[in-house]
Amino acid sequence: MSAPIVQDVLPLPRKLPETDRVNLVGLTRPSLREALIAAGTPEVQAKMRVNQLWQWIYQKGVRDFDAMTNLAKDYRALLKDHFAIEVPEIVTRSVSADGTRKYLVRIAGGHEIEVVYIPEDGRGTLCISSQVGCTLTCTFCHTGTQRLVRNLTAAEIVGQVMLARDDLGEWPKPGRNPKDETRLISNLVLMGMGEPLYNFEAVRDAMLIAMDGEGISLSRRRITLSTSGVVPEIARAGREIGCMLAISLHATTDELRNKIVPINRKYPIAQLFEALRAYPKLSNSERITFEYVMLKGVNDSDADARQLVRLIAGIPAKINLIPFNEWPGAPYQRSDWDRIEAFANIVYKAGYASPIRTPRGEDIMAACGQLKSATERARKNRFQIAAEAGLPEPERIVRRPDAPDVH
Ligand code: SAH
Ligand code: SF4
Fold first, then answer.
1. Known catalytic membership, residue 274
2. Ligand 2 centroid to 127 CA: how many Å?
3. What distance in Å separates the CA atoms of residue 246 and residue 295, rounded to the nearest whole number?
4. Is 143 in contact with 372 (CB distance < 8 Å)?
């Protein structure tokens, strides 16, 4: 097994910033305060200025200092000299037949990430990314086949929420109280590209802005961080972020989990569960979500379901069963529907909610685990994927020498 289980973020070339003005997006309250004072804001005013700026930026969606009408003209000029308000740029938007929207988003350095908006009855969920690609190599995950990785900045993470609000036209109309508006984005999930706990500080700072009453104003109970199980950071997430937690479990024995979620070799199941039992505020209304991807013939038997129930005993939990989303070259197949239902039934009868996640946005490759920017060229081929998954070598396709290079 050669799959890396360390946090090796390959340095990617980044274009030099075009200006040396500091981006206000993504700065925590204390850093914003410091930046304003350094630019000449009197200390006694700094706290008020932070609140005013946050309201303009995160509650009203204003990107232009001149539109900040409660600030004096010369103060606006000072802000313009020192600062910018920038969010990543939408390159393309695909809309699925089921209303799911996928955005391909360009960040500094020309790299691309994906963001998905999933409208449902009574709520709308935005699935955001924390890294370009992922250093981990879960064998069923398309993102994990992308080689190049860089951490996103807090601005790029909270900026994903802002650009989706731009596209959905969600900013409140001038003169309306933002708190009275219906929110199209009512929930955030860190389930896009990347392992959020390998980019802890930026994810934390962005989520603190998302939760702040003067920031994006979403309740911490409407934000879910999904991790493959970076055990040492789980307690820290509880302390410093306090959002809901989802664990990509996918297997109930170390033997299988080592293969399909390789970080398990570093933090095995027993250690993971010790950290989960200690997660703060666990209760019936604040449950841990266990994600379990249904892979045909791999982890979907009745015995697996019963073992899952034994493993989570005593933890307030919900089991999210995800029918495997196939991607070109994937070494697995989705479990049959009857099998998924039989599995769900066993878990449900043991007293746990066991919703089967309806695949959304499959026609635009927006479904969970399919995210990978099409333009990142360096990637593994299906032979490497199969080798890492411990599967037989795929059939070789003989092509003409002049045929285009596809995997
Ligand atoms: N890195 C984090 C968050 C991003 S992945 C994590 O692993 O938790 C979000 C979820 O999608 C995870 O549960 C992941 O295991 C799952 N997933 C990945 N590839 C998938 C696929 N092809 N089909 C279904 N779910 C997949
Ligand atoms: Fe990374 Fe999560 Fe994909 Fe695993 S499932 S490779 S941790 S994004």
1. no
2. 14
3. 19
4. yes
